[in-house]
Amino acid sequence: MRQILDRIADKWSLLTIALLAGRTLRFTELRREIDGISQRMLARTLRHLERDGLVRRTVYPVVPPRVDYALTPLGGSLHETIQALVTWTETHQNEIAAARNDYDTRVEIA
């Protein structure tokens, strides 16, 4: 169980799953939308999510090669759970930022 949680709870997996919710994207589109992710890390993340049955990779036999990524039904059900976390984060982000500021100010003084 911990292995699965470690995999799906990392920031790149969460962002990838959130971006694929309800749509199909190409690798370059995902990379463009996920700020700060390297090509290598995105490829690794997608491979892991595909292996876990959360993402479907579709390769089209065209030149140049075209590869699309989409959530599987299992990935879609995980997204519903993640969405609650995203909503909570959006609702409380200002409070968290204020708490961090307060903490940083106290630590600097001490």
Automatic annotation (TrEMBL):
Organism per entry: Nocardia neocaledoniensis
Superkingdom, natural source: Bacteria
Any GO MF annotation of the entry: DNA binding
SUPFAM superfamilies xrefs: Winged helix' DNA-binding domain (SSF46785)
Alphabetical list of Gene3D superfamilies matching this protein: Winged helix-like DNA-binding domain superfamily/Winged helix DNA-binding domain
Keywords: DNA-binding, Transcription, Transcription regulation
Pfam families for the chain: HxlR
Keyword Transcription (UniProt): yes
InterPro entries associated with the record: HTH_HxlR (IPR002577), WH-like_DNA-bd_sf (IPR036388), WH_DNA-bd_sf (IPR036390)
Protein name listed in UniProt: HxlR family transcriptional regulator
Xref: PANTHER family: TRANSCRIPTIONAL REGULATOR, MARR FAMILY (PTHR33204), TRANSCRIPTIONAL REGULATORY PROTEIN (PTHR33204:SF39)
HTH hxlR-type domain sequence ranges: 1-97
